[in-house]
Design brief:
The protein is α/β, with parallel strands linked by helices and 161 residues long. The chain has helices spanning 13-28, 52-55, 62-70, 89-97, 115-120, 131-143, 145-151; strands spanning 35-40, 43-49, 80-85, 102-107, 124-127. A five-stranded mixed beta sheet has the order 2-1-3-4-5. Strand 4, helix 5 (115-120) and strand 5 (124-127) form a beta-alpha-beta unit. Helix 1 packs parallel to helix 6 (131-143). Bound molecules: zinc ion.
Length: 161
């Protein structure tokens, strides 16, 4: 992966920036720095961020919050979901359920997500390898390993000796 999305050149930069801003906002609130946005063409419909810490809501991953903020949509078939981090199994299930055809991902280095499942269901996945998304997650994982483990339903790592 060279970070240059050459194969699929076009994506909505405003939508991705909205996702990054949402992640930064979450981080500034002491929350998990993952943001997402839903877009239809050039229109950014809504954005959201992980709300596990802010609202005590374990289901409110960034993608879920953005979809909730977007409200009812007649169809998702002409939409793209933008997210700063590779989607987990729950969010991947929602993407498949809503028939969202395309996902643009900030980074998949700190968490691999479910690309294989997405692609097996015909979802196009574009990874930007965005440095800001990576840096936010890496710092957060180092500073709050228990919180990160909780978000992805892993047992917390032992304290370093
Ligand atoms: Zn998720």
């Amino acid at each position: 992966m060279n970070g240059q999305p050459s194969e699929y050149a076009a994506y909505n930069e405003d939508a991705f920036e909205a996702a990054v801003r949402a992640a930064q906002k979450s981080l500034s609130e002491g929350g998990i720095p993952i943001g997402a946005a839903l877009a239809r063409g050039n229109e950014v419909i809504a954005s959201g961020h992980n709300e596990r810490v802010q609202h005590g809501d374990p289901i409110a991953h960034g993608e879920m919050s953005a979809l909730r903020a977007a409200g009812r949509q007649r169809s998702y078939r002409d939409t793209t979901l933008y997210t700063t981090l590779a989607p987990c199994a729950m969010c991947t299930g929602t993407i498949i359920q809503f028939k969202i055809p395309r996902v643009v991902v900030g980074e998949a280095r700190t968490f691999p997500g479910e690309f294989e499942l997405l692609r097996s269901r015909g979802v196009e996945v574009l990874v930007l390898d965005d440095q800001r998304s990576f840096d936010m997650m890496r710092s957060f994982q180092q500073d709050h390993p228990e919180l990160w483990a909780e978000d992805i339903a892993e047992d917390a790592l032992p304290e370093p000796a």
